[in-house]
Amino acid sequence: MSTTTVRPVTRVVTAHSQTEGGGFVVRRPLPTPGFPLADPFLLIDEMGPVSYGPGEAIGAPDHPHRGFETVTYILEGEMEHEDSAGHRGVLGPGDVQWMTAGAGIIHSEEPTKKMREGGGRAHGFQIWVNLPARLKMTRSAPRPPSRRTRPSFTRTGRSTKAPT
User: Fold this and answer.
1) Mind listing the pLDDT tens digit for each residue in 13-24?
2) What's the CATH fold of domain 26-133?
3) Residue 130: exposed, middle, or buried by beta-carbon count in 10 A (0-12, 13-18, 19+)?
């Protein structure tokens, strides 16, 4: 038999907007003034929703990460991930990509050719998860994006899968 504990809302955080990468706008509730850290979560971004016309879609060209993991979840649109370890993949609606940056990796997240040429709606989320100190210099490990290989978690006898 399971029990549900309802916890009260203790704080409402207003996300601020800023540009990232090649100039796309994100809404970021964490970190934000007055709520700088919620370890292990370093950053939460909502990308979009936005509608791009042909030739307008923008992404994040080559940039480095080190010492944390990124979790990217796409609701609408398509983006291509490529990294310095030679991994490359396309993320579409419902796809999740979990990338361990560890000791360091350079990667890009760009709209696919289809999105660049034809435009379309784009919407997704990215969360940065801090690695424990003992794992910060671990080997980088991007995982291929997939709806079929969504992350799963087991804690105190309960399992769950990330939703699609």
Assistant:
1) 889 999 999 999
2) Jelly Rolls (2.60.120)
3) middle
